[in-house]
Request: fold
Amino acid sequence: MKNKMKKNFFKYFFLFFLISCSKSETEEELIADFVNNVKENNDVYIEGNLSWEDAVKLALKYNKILKATIEERDIARGEKIEASSEFFPKVLSSFNYSHLDKSPSVFVNDVEIPLGKIDNYSVDLTVKQPLFYGGSIYFKNLIASLGQNIADEKIIKQIQTTIFETLQAYFDLLLAKKVYLVKKRSFFASKRHLKDVKDKIENDVASQYDLLRAKVDLSNFKGEFINADNVVKLKRSNLYKILGVSQESKIILKDSLKYKKMEMTLEKAVDIAFKNRPDLKEKKLFVDVKKEQVNIAISKFFPKFDFVYSNKWGRPDPHSSTIDSWGRQWSIALSMNWPIFEGLKKRGNLIKEKAHLEKSRYLLQDMKQQIILELRKSIFSLENADYLVKSQKLDLKRAKEALKLVQYGYKEGINTEIEVTDAISATTKSKILYYQALYQHEMAKLYLNFSLGLLNPKFISGEKR
Reply:
């Protein structure tokens, strides 16, 4: 499966690396290529070994939320075309036919003089070209262009979110599988212990209480084992949903939870995040949009000038209603539309747009502070997870040694059945806590990279993990 997938994905990774930086004309074309390829793909059935890299590749190709977000690009393109249409002339045409009950006429000295015909035909063509609208048409086009850039940043943000959610779901399933295996081993260890108790009863070394306690413990371990199995099924289903593949797929996770130390200072993290976070770039573009909306509000204080050309073909002749033949009439005009007073509407609109601009600037500053806070939390979480992995690894080693001693002591008649059960439970708990610590460390690194805006092809290739 991995060889089959590589053929389609290498150019996606190169593309994403480019669109994560400032865009040029070539990068715009690559984004469009990525969009077209994603749109062509539907649900697929997969089976076999699945690495976390392949999981990310599948999600980038089939994830439904990502596909929905990609539609933002066409929406923005449509809005750009719509805004550009304001530069071009508007051509209107109409056709009219009317039949009168009586031809119009006038009496002069008791003499009826006809002024028209019963049947009237006309064909009108009007061309209206905007000349000057206070700059509003230009500003609207700037907003539409900014909208395209915002759409691209939204796509990049969703790509990063998809990578984050995919890896989170992958690690969730890894942890669930580890917990399941621990519970399974504990269940079978409890079964073996029950057999030992039964053997001791036959030799009059153990009591009925020991037997009942062993059966209760076995029942409890079985319940935990079944619950762990159900959690695995749910986590697997969630992974399939994020990947956008069939729920009937059958995969085996190829990777495991690993510990790899990662270090990052707050100063370096802030610098990286401010350069790479797509949501921050989107917020900056939103401020630019608000600036242009203020300019549009100002443009409403200026008059609007249009060039108008009209052409009319009619019967009777448009120049003389008494001539029953087709004739033509044309005119050109320069029109000005300048509302002098609208109840302070324009003034109120300008105040509103300026307030929106200031609001967007405050929100931009707040986002920067929020990013710094997220980075600080991520670094602290990484430090805590790093310590937790080391301490839980040591605790697990101690728990295993204690279990061996207690099991040996039980066979020699030194330790009791309760002590064996407690040792099994302690070892089970230590194993789970250790795997949870590994999971938390993986998630801490993942969230830090997400907060930095670095979930890109370099991360997928394993350089950042």
Summary: The longest strand covers residues 119-132. Residues 1-22 have pLDDT under 50 and may be disordered. The two ends are 23 Å apart (CA to CA).
